[in-house]
Design brief:
Blueprint (H helix, E strand, L loop, with lengths): L7 E6 L7 E6 L6 H9 L6 H9 L4 E8 L5 E8 L2 E5 L3 E4 L4 E3 L8 E4 L6 H12 L8 E7 L3 E6 L2 E6 L4 H16 L6 E3 L7 E3 L2
Parallel strand pairs: 2-4, 5-8, 8-9, 11-12
Antiparallel strand pairs: 1-2, 3-4, 5-6, 6-7, 9-10, 10-11, 12-13
Length: 205
């Protein structure tokens, strides 16, 4: 398998008393408003210390490397950004390691997750199920939502799937079998309800 790495390079010459010239290399394409604000803030960096402080305060940065040759005014910064898995309540992004960082406007759309969710690993289980289930009728996981009253709700394309308050292997199995049945019969319901003890309810149209 081939792996490609995208490098986006920005050059800034900053007029300060120290005459610093800062070269910033982003490992990934810029997508967050907070990244653009950071770039704009480079004009105010008057020292290496202020630059380090600014880098440490960027929640979206996964890691960075700062290189400066002693007695040289040129500084190189290499930045690796965190990669969101989903958007939580329009307050945070959550990455693959379930680390949160503050929400910022993005030029990409991410899976929306809403609700007071204490165990984020439940979200991972739902995402993995949606990605792994084999079917030809559902293409995209649009929304995951949790309510203390109604329980879990996921939306695949335009179909609402109600799972109840507990996510179990039994429910995953039942949902998988239901999707297989719908796939074979080429049916796309508006709702699948798995909250019943005796089976599943399907609403068409």
């Amino acid at each position: 398998m081939l792996h490609f790495r995208y490098l986006l390079i920005f050059f800034y010459s900053i007029n300060t008393s120290a005459q610093l010239n800062i070269e910033v290399t982003f490992e990934d394409p810029i997508e967050f408003e907070s990244q653009l604000k950071f770039i704009e803030s480079l004009d105010d960096m008057g020292s290496v210390k202020s630059l380090k402080n600014a880098l440490e305060n960027q929640e979206w940065i996964d890691s960075y490397i700062l290189n400066r040759i002693p007695f040289d005014d040129n500084i190189e910064v290499y930045i690796s950004s965190k990669k969101p898995l989903f958007n939580l309540n329009n307050e945070f992004y959550v990455d693959y390691d379930l680390d949160k960082f503050s929400y910022s406007a993005s030029n990409r759309s991410y899976l929306r997750v809403n609700g007071d969710i204490s165990n984020l690993s439940d979200i991972i289980n739902l995402i993995e199920f949606a990605n792994e289930v084999d079917n030809n009728i559902f293409n995209k996981l649009e929304l995951i939502e949790y309510s203390h009253i109604f329980g879990w709700l996921i939306v695949l394309d335009q179909t609402e799937i109600k799972l109840g308050k507990e996510i179990t292997n039994k429910k995953f199995k039942l949902l998988e079998e239901t999707i297989e049945y719908l796939d074979i019969n080429n049916k796309i319901p508006s709702m699948i309800d798995l909250r019943y003890k005796d089976g599943v309810a399907i609403k068409n149209g």
